[in-house]
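Lecture 7 notes: from sequence to structure.
We start with the chain below.
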Amino acid sequence: MVNQSLIATKLAELAERIDRASAHCPPTAAELAGDRDALDLVAFNLMLAAQTCADIAGHIISDEGWPAAKTLADAFERLAERGVTSPATAEQLKRAIGLRNVVAPGYARINVDMVHAAATHGVEDLRRFSADVARLASATA
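Predicted structure tokens for the same chain:
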């Protein structure tokens, strides 16, 4: 059974990271590229949001006793296979892990356009994942 308290805490953390990334993201990628502090804040919060999603996926898989995923990206496939989220959302979350994997080691190779797109459009995928997980937690209450 899903640990509802833990999931609620993680979902709140995810919402905060999404809000922070959105709040610090300027309207255009060019503006983001020109503001290193904003780029750092947006990229860092998106990285933490993606990691939080991966943590949530791992907790659900473990709590439900499903076979462990071999990679962070595979965890989202596992959730889609079990109907927790849609295959399309799983694919987008796998892309978020890709962004996380670029941001985590350092900012030298960051594609500003990719970060801007994630902060302005990709956050909807994170919100959709959050809603899917909240439904699962409610259903297991």
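Points to note: The chain has a mean pLDDT of 93. The radius of gyration is 15 Å.
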